[in-house]
Amino acid sequence: MLTTLPHLVEQVPDTFQEPQAATGKFLHEPTLPPQVAACLGERLRAHYAQLMSDPVPDALLRILEPLDQKGRLSHGH
User: Fold this and answer.
1) pLDDT (tens place) for every residue of the chain, 77 residues total
2) Is residue 57 situated within a structural domain?
3) Taking the model in full, what pTM does it have?
4) Which domain holds residue 48?
């Protein structure tokens, strides 16, 4: 569960950059304060580490097995 971190939220500017009308690109790349980026990075790494340790659902394995067999046949393995 994600919680609000008030000491980090206060550092985020209230303004947004407007894209240039002709190109749709930002004048400057949007950035996050380093503390916010670090916090997000830590939380994403923890979340994906948990996903990688979870077992693959049986329904997904049933879908992937025929594709794997077909791939082996087409590559001569």
Assistant:
1) 455 555 555 555 555 555 555 566 767 777 889 999 999 999 999 999 999 999 999 999 999 999 998 888 887 66
2) yes
3) 0.41
4) 33-77
